[in-house]
Amino acid sequence: MKNKEELIRMNDTLEEIVFKANALEQKYAKSIVNVHSNYYDSARNLIHYLAFRSFDIDILQEKLRQLGLPDLSGIEGHVMKSLLSIQVIINLFMDTKNEENINGVISIQKADKLLNKNTKKLFGYKSKKRKTRIMVTLPATASEDYTLVNQLVKLGMNSARINCAHDSPEVWKKMITNIKRANGALKKKCKIMMDLGGPKLRTGPMKPGPNVVHIQPSKDVEGKVIKPAKVWIAPPDILPPNDSADVTIPVSEELMDKIKRGNIIRFKDSRGKNCKIDIKKREKKGRWGVCSDSAYISTGTELRLGKKKADGSEKILVGELLPTEQFITLHINDIFELHKEAALGEPATYEENGALIKKAHISCTLPAIFEDVKAGEPVFLNDGKIEAIIEEVNAERLMLRVTYAKNTGSKLKADKGINFPESDLKISGLTEKDKLDLEFVAQNADAVNLSFVNQRSDVETYLEEIGKYEANLGLILKIETQKGFRNLPEILLTAMQTYPIGVMIARGDLAIETGWKNFATIQEEIMRVSEAAYIPAVWATQVLDNLARKGVPTRSEITDAAQAQRTECVMLNKGTYIKKAVKTLDKILRRMQRFQKKKQIILPKLEQAGELKLSHKKYDIQ
User: Is this prediction's pTM over 0.85?
Assistant: First the structure.
């Protein structure tokens, strides 16, 4: 009798969920009708999923598990089908007739087909033996280096990402020409994705520091040099190959021929310290040297040239050095100013006794946000490395008090991100520059990545702008704020008016905005909501980042890349070892698809499992 009562309660809960799902579908009927015809089923299932998730069903799930039934944890793509199927089974257990008609609702097979269809339309054909696509952010050098683009396509790049926040239309066009050339040569169809820069909320420029470079050899904990600094000496316009120099010293081109391998260059640095550079080799128009001294070299420093073990008489003057990059050092409880005025930022100044003369200050690239923030709201700077709270707000400035920084102080430089996670910012996702760039994107790209999508109106603005061009562009919505996450369902329903669309989980800003402790669950929820709408998701930001930049992966980023296989596309950022990163990611994704499909765990045959023998020996544990 007790079991029957539990079955009745379970059935009542399921009926309540189904009723609410149907009611919500009626409530949002107008929104569903307005979507593209290819998204009609997507919109309905998304509404059903939101109704389902509005219930706290953990008790129901546990009861279903105890009966050996599906616990509804993988319901995203086929909500109504799963609910009604479970109802049928429960009614069989109760020996009662079920009058629910499960015909016409979306089956598991149809859900898979819809997601695959939408993924193929947005990202193109999958690679051989790999379902998850790979998107690669192209460096500016891809405009001149066809071989790099060709190799990336050959290694498995399914779509190339061009960021309109950098470079120019001339450079973008050259990149696209190389992509199309590689597609033709390899008989591939690498898609072209172009990012609109969006509004960038960052720190403004700092006042330039002195024209000086700091030579810093690597030292151990006792201060002993373990690796000298690599010094590139060349005419001002000759850059070091592969950007591999620790320090670059510009000198006159006429004097370069006098610097030979084996020479020693002696000098007094800006502090009067005697130092030397050993010249090791010549490369094109430059010279490579090493320096084991910690030294400061400024414009006009006198370099004395001589052979080994000989005093030099030849004098060379250091050419014009770039000003050093200034920064503000912030400690907990420091107060500094974020201002509207485009004045150059400066660090705090103090008297000799340590008394503060003037607070540190720096500008903000989007002064319009001053109208939207309030005292007491938190502010994160430099990717969350510095945390502060707004102490004072007025028309021209914000006074911020630091609540988190390193014990030794954290550096805040120009062009570093600013996040207001709890402020209701009214900034739009489409800037005037984006609108200008959109004309080029409409003519040359397969899809546009729309930055800073916070609300339905951001999508509406985009749809209005793209409607000015005869273009059939895919649209990828970059979700990078807490507000964007909260509004995701209505953002998707609005975006479904065009076809195809995708969602990018912009994990960098999103983690800062939502808080590190919340981020893991939030990225899961974005994937679930996207799957419920049959919208392909992109796993982005710092995937195999250490491998791409330094050539060696960390253990944590290998695990991260493996988890990324649950999405339909994974994005890599540019780096010196990007080809190695693409090759590694390709292997990881092909391997992982044998073990996992979305959230569903797959159990491939475990080799030699049938040969394992159980021991019956008993052990006397003392």
Answer: no
